Amino acid sequence: MNEGVEWAMHSCVNLSWAPGEAVTAKRLAAFYNLPTAYLNKQLQALTRAGILTSVSGPKGGFQLARDPRDISLLDIVVAIDGPDDAFRCMEILKEGPGADARADYTKICVISQAMRGAELTYRRELANRSIADIAAEVVRLNPSAPDNTRNRFANLKS
Amino acid sequence: MNEGVEWAMHSCVNLSWAPGEAVTAKRLAAFYNLPTAYLNKQLQALTRAGILTSVSGPKGGFQLARDPRDISLLDIVVAIDGPDDAFRCMEILKEGPGADARADYTKICVISQAMRGAELTYRRELANRSIADIAAEVVRLNPSAPDNTRNRFANLKS
DNA sequence: CTATCCTGGACATCTAATATCCAGGATATG
DNA sequence: CATATCCTGGATATTAGATGTCCAGGATAG
């Protein structure tokens, strides 16, 4: 899985603690010492997916597009890593005995079904975890996290 | 995920229908028109993982090392694709504010925990599906599959 | 002894992930 | 309006991993 997923999740949690404020890609990158241009690519993907909104120009930057309770970890995985399953059925049964050339073996093949089923449970787990859930759990473990985050945003070179 | 996982799973199902018989890599590859040398690499990985046994020389080949009821889809995924999670926590929190250099953020980080949890449900699903389960389901849909497989093994050029 | 076939390492190729750069457009501010 | 800031998106370079091939060596059946 793309490493940008981790960056994006942490960035979204941090943005949830800076509501109404646009944070530049530069600051978000400096927060974890990440390459600015590359993180920017991930932020653009999140924006295209409707998870973030962006504003150009001075005072511009990124912020969450909606309530963090309505942004799931799955939303972020799909935005950054794409919608494809980890296991991609290549329909090798089409090369086997008695194959039906018109059949869709991604649907018929029992192995494909089993892998797809496991993937669905994975996705269900991620769909049930929101950025707000994560943020709340972080606060429970470290109540000063939101303040620390806001302070760091304020102190980082734009 | 490595495409060899799909090849390995189908090959194991087919081997479950040829008990006691050693099948060469060449035949297993020809079955689905796969590259022999590369499939052989996957078969070797399965052998090292204790899922297959191999015999060198004439009449040699591969067969299942144990009852197909005791070979799970997870066993095969781990053997071919390795034990690592899809999401690999890079501990970017170590670069954040108030980081503890000695902490293991793969364990502490809430995001890492959430991703790990989803991965565990995925693995649990795969661990609960055996090659015997898959084979039985294939037979239910196509009762002649075992015979077809044995015939194809017999007819393919060694 | 010989033909067969697995073993494992070396090597080549291709794709995707990672990363950088820049021209262009949007916008806040003076 | 002029300017500095900052997102957008495409082009490009680099690297790692996946994919695939080849061969020398060893095991074994006949």
- Count, helices of chain A: 8
What is the overall pLDDT average of chain A? 96
Structural shape of chain A: elongated
Count of the separate structural domains of chain A:
1
Model description:
- Chain A is mainly alpha-helical and 158 residues long.
- A two-stranded antiparallel sheet of chain A has the order 1-2.
- In chain A, helix 1 packs across helix 3.
- The longest helix of chain A has 18 residues.
- Chain A is elongated, with a radius of gyration of 20 Å.
- Chain A binds a DNA duplex (30 and 30 nucleotides) through helix 3.
Write a compact overview of the structure shown.
Two copies of one chain form a homodimer. The first copy, chain A, is mainly alpha-helical.
Layout of secondary structure:
The structure is a homodimer.
Chain A lengths: L3 H13 L8 H7 L4 H13 L3 E4 L5 E4 L8 H9 L23 H4 L1 H18 L3 H11 L3 H11 L3
Antiparallel strand pairs in A: 1-2
Chain A binds a DNA duplex (30 and 30 nucleotides) through helix 3.
Tag the structure with descriptive keywords.
homodimer; 158 residues; mainly alpha; Arc Repressor Mutant, subunit A; two-stranded antiparallel ribbon; 8 helices; 54% helix; 5% strand; elongated; DNA-binding
